[in-house]
Design goal:
Blueprint lengths: L2 H15 L5 E10 L11 E2 L1 E14 L4 E6 L7 E4 L13 H12 L7 E7 L9 H16 L6 H15 L7 H8 L4 E6 L5 E5 L7 E7 L10 H15 L13 H5 L7 H22 L6 H16 L4 H12 L4 E5 L6 E7 L3 H15 L5 E5 L6 E2 L2
Parallel strand pairs: 4-6
Antiparallel strand pairs: 1-3, 1-13, 2-7, 3-6, 4-5, 7-8, 9-11, 9-12, 10-11
The structure holds alpha-D-galactopyranose (GLA).
The site of alpha-D-galactopyranose has 11 residues, from α5.
Length: 385
């Protein structure tokens, strides 16, 4: 996060709210390297934070009002009474900050109002966790301003509860854990059951690699029912197998388990169990100092998401295909799917050619132009001014 970004948000706050904020906080978006649709199955994931972040200038208020303004919004300031916050009563982007304040109060924490000014560089609807970034920025700011002393995993749980119960999106905990707990230069090995994390060094540039984010610009909406249906299918399968969660099904028992399940649940379970194993293999390869060996795991993971979990779409499939054909070591969709972004691990010298090849393939297929960003493993949520 550059000092210029922080100064711009401070200045925006002065213009909108008058006077200075008590501080400026930032929380990043993320890409997930591997471990997709495993978090709500109590499984494993390996996300890393992006340099793109939600930056928030905040000043505590004593009159119980929450006044929200966004540089990406419609220019209006939304004013809410903290005591009146309730799920379903808040619309648009303001559900996320309002939801966090509501979720903190649900925990019995004595938090009140604030003036907030947001400026976020995380693209929305791109599968890069713009909503988690915003929630986590509010959570860390409130933690400090109201002296709550919550741990990283507790802040992530509050943010997830806001998204589940207030915004009505039945997501798992990965995005919020990534936004709070990631550190620069590392991927985060996450156990979604215990919320234990391990920082895994990820030196891409030192190995002559780059990680591209190819945003297909196909916008998804996790609240639209498909995500909830997949989640319910996994829970049904775990119930039928007599397990607390699919995380508890060891790979060696997969073939025997699959014959006991109805046909519609077989591919879901196969994806979740093989994907958890791919996370472990990815962590081993990073520990062995061969990040380039992640490539084949990424492509294998994409095939599983496309053929078994069925959350890819024509645009993400084409981005993966074109990237690999142009020299990427591996590529896969990242995040919930149904559009959003693809990550591609590429030798540094091939990065421009891979970006161009995907753009050309989209043009030839009649798709709109993708946006190409670079993912650099960055810091998690923190105070920046
Ligand atoms: C979305 C959700 C996450 C996770 C991913 C899929 O990003 O918010 O909790 O389930 O999809 O891995």
């Amino acid at each position: 996060m550059t000092p210029a970004a922080s100064a711009a948000v401070h200045e925006g706050f002065r213009r909108i709210h008058g006077g200075d904020p008590d501080g400026v906080w930032a929380a990043p978006g993320r890409v997930n390297l591997i471990g997709e649709h495993t978090d709500y199955n109590d499984g494993f994931a390996l996300p890393m934070a992006l340099p793109q972040a939600a930056v928030l200038a905040v000043r505590r208020r004593t009159d119980g009002l929450l006044r929200l303004h966004s540089a990406q919004g419609d220019g209006l300031t939304t004013e809410l009474r903290v005591a009146d916050l309730a799920p379903g009563r808040t619309a648009g982007w303001t559900r996320y900050p309002a939801g966090v304040v509501w979720a903190l109060r649900e925990r019995g924490l004595p938090v009140g109002g604030a003036d907030l000014h947001l400026d976020s560089s995380v693209p929305t609807g791109a599968g890069l966790s713009s909503s988690a970034a915003l929630e986590c920025a509010v959570a860390v700011a409130y933690d400090e301003l109201y002296g709550l002393g919550l741990s990283g995993p507790e802040l992530a749980r509050v943010a997830q509860h806001a998204e589940n119960a207030y915004a009505g999106v039945p997501c798992g905990v990965m995005d919020q854990m990534a936004s709070v707990c990631c550190t620069g230069g590392h991927a985060l090995h996450l156990d979604s059951r215990s919320l234990e994390v391990r920082q895994v060094p990820l030196d891409l540039t030192g190995h002559g690699l780059r990680l591209l984010v190819l945003d297909t610009r196909v916008r998804h909406d996790l609240a639209d029912g498909a995500y909830a249906a997949l989640r319910a299918g996994c829970e049904r399968a775990a119930g039928l197998l007599g397990l607390p969660a699919l995380r508890d099904l060891p790979g060696a028992e997969l073939p025997a388990a699959l014959v006991r399940l109805p046909a519609d649940l077989v591919p879901l379970v196969r994806h979740v169990v093989t994907e958890n194993a791919r996370v472990e293999r990815a962590v081993e390869r990073l520990a062995a100092g061969v990040p380039e060996a992640l490539g084949p795991l990424l492509t294998e993971g994409h095939a599983s998401l496309r053929d078994d979990y069925r959350v890819s779409c024509a645009e993400t499939d084409l981005a993966v295909e074109a990237a690999v054909a142009a020299g990427a070591l591996g590529a896969r969709m990242t995040g919930g799917g149904f559009g959003g972004s693809v990550i591609a691990l590429v030798p540094a010298g091939e990065a421009a050619a891979v970006g161009r090849a995907v753009t050309d393939a989209f043009a030839a297929a009649g798709f709109g132009a993708p946006a190409v960003l670079e993912a650099v493993p960055s810091a998690g949520a923190r105070r920046i001014a």
